[in-house]
Design goal:
Blueprint: H1 2-22, H2 35-59, H3 64-83, H4 94-118
Transmembrane segments: 36-56, 63-83, 95-118
Keywords: Membrane, Transmembrane, Transmembrane helix
């Protein structure tokens, strides 16, 4: 969870700085969305994916890859439903691009968690 929080804070900070440098942060006023809201959604969604993957690793280790794919599919659908009302508001795809940056940051975190769980070192107890 600490890594997820760190990624969220760093991603939000860097994206905010980039938007300020480009001078386009004022466009958030033309929509009902905020960058903080998008990152909050991504944080909660990735936290749920990580918890489900950890529970699957504990109970049904052989099905971890299927659960991962299912979680990513559900997360993608939930993300679309979250951003759906804001699509095509801007000619320059301001909202879509900002959402995609955050989505891929959190997707990389989900992939990292799944990778770490699948590739855990097998510890053999020597007698």
């Amino acid at each position: 969870m600490g890594l997820l929080l760190l990624i969220t804070v760093l991603g939000y900070g860097v994206q905010t700085l980039v938007l300020q440098k480009l001078g386009v942060e004022s466009q958030w006023g033309q929509t009902d969305y905020t960058l903080l809201g998008i990152y909050t959604f991504g944080f909660v969604a990735s936290l749920l994916v990580a918890v489900l993957l950890l529970l699957t690793d504990f109970a049904l280790k052989n099905y971890l890859s299927f659960v991962f794919l299912g979680c990513i599919l559900i997360k993608a659908v939930a993300s679309y439903l979250f951003i759906q009302s804001g699509l095509n508001l801007f000619e320059n795809d301001f909202l879509e691009l900002n959402f995609l940056v955050a989505f891929f940051i959190f997707l990389l975190y989900d992939i990292f968690v799944a990778y770490k769980l699948v590739n855990q070192d097998i510890r053999v107890v020597e007698k």
